[in-house]
Sequence to fold (398 residues):
Amino acid sequence: MTDLPRLRLKAQEERRLREGHVWIYSNEVDIAATPLKAFEPGQQAIVEDSKGKALGVAIVNPNTLICARLVNRDVVHPLSTSLFVHRLQIALSLREAWYPEPYYRLVYGDSDGLPGLVVDRFGDYLVVQISTAGIEREKAGLIDALVKVLKPQGILFKNDGKMRQVEGLDSYVEVVYGEVPDRVALRENGVAFEALVRDGQKTGWFYDHRESRARLKGLVAGKRVLDVFSYIGGWGVQAAVFGAAEVHCIDGSEKALDQVMRNAALNGVESKVQTLQGDAFDALTALKQDNERFDVIIMDPPAFITRRKDHKAGLQAYRRANELAMRLLGRDGLLVSASCSMHLAREELVDIVRASSRHLDRQAQIVHHGHQGADHPILPAIPETEYLKAVFARVLPI
Fold:
């Protein structure tokens, strides 16, 4: 057993861990026996129950509500280069079984046994985001492990996420191995893209909606499509490639929309694609005033509910967005209503679609539910690992 310090839990507080969860909250710790203030952010410790029985090794941050996260239930092997290699090999085997090309989320945090770590793979390039002090503290071992397992041409640390502030970590973007261009190539559902890995959102691409975007094939041929909150065209460009007659992409970022057109050109569909920069709600209102109509509308906004206390306001934003979209749908139109808000339950999104359609004297038929892909695996014991949802709804007049 290692000589790591101990973090003792109060009586009966180990139940969630035994059931498979990996988070420990500060109010679950016996601070009389093991004071949290004795730990440094990112330090590793052996977690034990109130009777002193070891439960596993965790990375600790005494300054956060989630003060510890298990990284291994085997206390002999703390977080190290060798454990990174082991976890990466297990993660890689899953992705290679599901995806024929090396474009996917390679590491999805807790689900892959590496809390606070995201690694997106773009062929020979890796984009990494670290959001816990424990992973940050061991980043040299992480880099060594990534090089050993993947042999990439370059690794970019895109460490500028909001969660780093919560953990007390600095924000930075840095190439830590080899070279990484500003744009990297990927393929999704047979469609070619470039992702903006340095200046784009998150890691530069959102692999999570891959399966839902694939469902557009066969549904958009000859249709007029509107992609709201389009970013760089993940939905819209694929719709154009899948046979849409025309595609309109709305986003607030001029740089993102420039990349929409680059991605459309990569696939020879730039003549079908148009862009509109501006606030999505304002743009939808203006389109309605111009009496525009679309056969298919994709509504894939950023998370409107990032914290529990934002729930009420977020629900209103989702409701407003969906109603505005439905007002633009032609007869027998299809709405794809998506959400990446962990704090919005799937049932709530369905109810938003129901309520929006009824408010407009229309009838919604749910024809498909979209989920996150296999490269975003869900741990049943950790409901927080399931966050993505997409509702495909046929909207009919009464």
Remarks:
- The CA atoms of residues 221 and 243 lie 4 Å apart.
- The chain has three domains: 6-72, 81-180, 193-397.
- The mean pLDDT is 97.
- The domain at 81-180 is CATH 3.30.750.80 (Transcription Regulator spoIIAA).
